[in-house]
Amino acid sequence: MPGLIIDEMNRTDPRLAAKLLHILLEKEVTIAGRPHRIGHMLPNGSTYQFQIAAINSGYKGTFEMDEALVRRAVMELPMNMFPPGMADFSMLLSSVYRDIPLRETKSHLEDVLSVKDAVSGIALDPEVSHFLLYLHAMESCVKSATGTKGGIEMRQGSSLKPFCINNGSGVACHFLNEYQNEMCPNVRGLSAGVAKNLILLSQGFAALRGTKMAAGETNEEDYSAIAGNLKVEVQDMVAAVPFVGYSKMGMSAEWVIKQFRTSRWHAVKGVVESAYQKFSTFYLQNFDALSKAGTPGLSKEEAMRVMRDAWQQDHFMYFSLVPYFAKIFPEILSIQRNAQSPSGSQ
């Protein structure tokens, strides 16, 4: 079947949940000893299936969701962040039917597959690629022996404790003072898996934005120009992060309670907006050099200047620049390792 909807997934028997993991992730299930592919067969031999699962968290009789399953979900929509308005409530009260009648039975599978192919072909603006590196660089920590927050992580249950602490004479890491709401010690960076999902959803946001722009165009040339020049822009990625990182972005539970009144959705949204504000300031100041990175037009002196400025202004930016410039100047990696060593100059 081209679509699968699972309601109240976290109420199912754990043995069935293990089967569902194969269905949702591998699109394959074994019946009577024989493996069966699931979904609509595509010409290249793969299968497509539109999958959606609903859960009611915190209720009696529910199970903890499998982390592997949650991690691989491309998009999460916490419905309590989008409650029905008065007009919705009025419509529900006046509805005679409990069930929503289907208005048509025509299949739109071919349209969905063509949209899927078109969306996956939308390119990323270079600024988007760099911002994605920046979000990953939030995992870095200049005070850690490993260079990452993961190496000094302390957990109490599901609570992620701050990585840098006040040592009595002031905050241990001066970068703390540069971020609103003590973001640095309480937030971790994006993993590679989350980043891949973020690209997918950002492409979808770009397609939606382009569709809205093109909807008002009656001239076919203008319509084609919008479609032909469509790229994923940073605004698409900023909008997509809360839907992807809702449960996957490492954050201190106590920090979310203190700064965002327990709303994890607004915490993720606030983090990415604050990060982009700092990122864009630096990016605009160094646009010429950054736009030349990866091409023969950038000298090592220019690259080092940009990195020194980043070190002084924002250590997340510094860590995100290392792989950016190491493509053309491999020795930058050794410079960075020396800077992080206990005896190195910071």
Q: So how many helices? A: 15
- In order across it, which strands form the biggest sheet? 1-6
Structure classification:
mainly alpha
Mean pLDDT score: 80
How many structural units, i.e. domains? 3
Strand content: 5-15%
SSE string, helices as H and strands as E: EHEEEEEHHHHEEHHHHHHHHHH
Question: Can you characterise this structure?
Answer:
The chain is mainly α and 346 residues long. It has three domains: 1-73, P-loop containing nucleotide triphosphate hydrolases (Rossmann fold); 107-276, no CATH class; 286-346. Helices cover 50% and strands 7% of the residues. It has 15 helices and eight strands. The strands form four sheets. It has a two-stranded parallel ribbon with strand order 1-6. Helix 5 (126-137) crosses helix 14 (315-326) and helix 14 (315-326) runs antiparallel to helix 15 (331-340). It is globular and about 70 Å long.
Briefly say what this structure is.
With 346 residues, this protein is mainly alpha-helical. 50% of the residues lie in helices and 7% in strands. The termini are far apart.
